[in-house]
Amino acid sequence: MDAGLLSDIKFNCDVSDAKFWGFYSVCGLLMRYRDLFRSEKGLKPWADIRREDIAAWIEQKEARWPELEQKDIRDLVIGDKSFHPFDVSGINRALNGRGLVYGAG
Question: I need a labelling partner for 16 at 20 to 30 A (CA). Which of 24, 26, 53, 103 fits?
Fold first, then answer.
């Protein structure tokens, strides 16, 4: 998988978090953070998470929000073609055969 594509997807997720976090309750946001933490760290869904580990991760993530709130999401480049991040159908067609699926929204 192209590291640039993964980096752009992660960047877009971070910009979205920075701009739209207020649409979730604190509890809902923390539950989503736990899932995202597990995913980013390659942990199993049932893995225990130490409070200190996730607290430090959340602090680092949210420290970037003032900067990211000013940014725009990036187009995603797959091969030689550029896609708007919400062109889920086009992106998934481009990823077909790579064992990946993309979702946004």
Answer: 53
Contact between 8 and 77 (Cβ < 8 Å): yes
Q: Evaluate if residue 22 carries a pLDDT over 80.
A: no
Determine the pLDDT at residue 27: 75
86 within a domain of the structure (yes/no): no
> Is-contact 15 104, C-beta < 8 A?
no
Q: Does residue 4 belong to any structural domain of this protein?
A: no
Q: For residue 6, give the H/E element and its range.
A: helix 3-20
On whether residue 102 sits in a domain, the answer given is: no
Q: Give the three-class secondary structure for 77.
A: strand
What's the predicted TM-score (pTM) here?
0.70
Q: What is the pLDDT of residue 23?
A: 67
Domain of 46? 20-71
